[in-house]
Amino acid sequence: MSLGQHLIELRKRLMISAIALVVGMVVAFFITDAVIQLLTIPINAIAMERGDESDVQLMFTTVTSAFDLRIRIAFAIGLLISAPIWLWQIWAFIMPGLTRKEVGYTAAFVGAAVPLFFAGASVGWIVMPHIVEIMSTFAPNGTALFYQADYYYDFVFKLMLVVGVSFVLPVFLVALNVAGVISGRGILKGWRVAVLVATLFAAVATPAADAVSMLMLAGILVVLFFAAAGVSLLFDRRRSKRESALLPPEAAG
């Protein structure tokens, strides 16, 4: 295909993806009420604990902030709903330019990364109420807790995004190993730092009194790290055998 044909193909793929996103947003807009109710569960729990709901509320500070929040929620959910369509459009555009081996690697990485990301985002949603509860304890007695809606939504969204990406990091480590950037031994050497980071993250993300949740979250992150190191070591061994087989007998000896 010529450059012009590639651009026409790209425009078509982008148009299909944009239409799918808009349709997903329209559908998602009708469930934003339920989503906002879910988001405010931790705030309501803090209000009940304090015994005064007037001092703990979700706050909209501008005329359009409530509508803006619904649009942002609809965009996030619409992106999720339309993901099968726009992911396929991306794949269909880049696949003709890949070799069979590259297609296999790409499919394997995407197949591993997508479920891990959603698993991590789900964990982020689970630990979010605990973080909100812990942060509320730093407010002095006699003060009110008014959560500005857009900042509160940003906090929840970014938390889910960060935890989701942290679950995908092992896949990126394997990708770097396949690309020859880092060896499996190099990944494994960082196990102490990985365990420390996983433990600190789990300690912050879970309530102080819930040691079981902390150990479970830290354990999942550590297992994913060692799984990435193990897969990378396996790839290194296969690569080493392949290179040895290509050497002449004199060099191999």
TrEMBL record:
<feature type="transmembrane region" description="Helical">
    <location>
        <begin position="191"/>
        <end position="209"/>
    </location>
</feature>
<keyword id="KW-0811">Translocation</keyword>
<keyword id="KW-1003">Cell membrane</keyword>
<feature type="transmembrane region" description="Helical">
    <location>
        <begin position="106"/>
        <end position="128"/>
    </location>
</feature>
<feature type="transmembrane region" description="Helical">
    <location>
        <begin position="215"/>
        <end position="235"/>
    </location>
</feature>
<dbReference type="GO" id="GO:0009977">
    <property type="term" value="F:proton motive force dependent protein transmembrane transporter activity"/>
</dbReference>
<feature type="transmembrane region" description="Helical">
    <location>
        <begin position="12"/>
        <end position="31"/>
    </location>
</feature>
<dbReference type="Pfam" id="PF00902">
    <property type="entry name" value="TatC"/>
</dbReference>
<keyword id="KW-1133">Transmembrane helix</keyword>
<keyword id="KW-0472">Membrane</keyword>
<dbReference type="GO" id="GO:0065002">
    <property type="term" value="P:intracellular protein transmembrane transport"/>
</dbReference>
<dbReference type="GO" id="GO:0043953">
    <property type="term" value="P:protein transport by the Tat complex"/>
</dbReference>
<protein>
    <recommendedName>
        <fullName>Sec-independent protein translocase protein TatC</fullName>
    </recommendedName>
</protein>
<dbReference type="GO" id="GO:0033281">
    <property type="term" value="C:TAT protein transport complex"/>
</dbReference>
<keyword id="KW-0653">Protein transport</keyword>
<comment type="similarity">
    <text>Belongs to the TatC family.</text>
</comment>
<comment type="subunit">
    <text>The Tat system comprises two distinct complexes: a TatABC complex, containing multiple copies of TatA, TatB and TatC subunits, and a separate TatA complex, containing only TatA subunits. Substrates initially bind to the TatABC complex, which probably triggers association of the separate TatA complex to form the active translocon.</text>
</comment>
<dbReference type="InterPro" id="IPR002033">
    <property type="entry name" value="TatC"/>
</dbReference>
<keyword id="KW-0812">Transmembrane</keyword>
<feature type="transmembrane region" description="Helical">
    <location>
        <begin position="73"/>
        <end position="94"/>
    </location>
</feature>
<feature type="transmembrane region" description="Helical">
    <location>
        <begin position="155"/>
        <end position="179"/>
    </location>
</feature>
<comment type="function">
    <text>Part of the twin-arginine translocation (Tat) system that transports large folded proteins containing a characteristic twin-arginine motif in their signal peptide across membranes. Together with TatB, TatC is part of a receptor directly interacting with Tat signal peptides.</text>
</comment>
<keyword id="KW-0813">Transport</keyword>
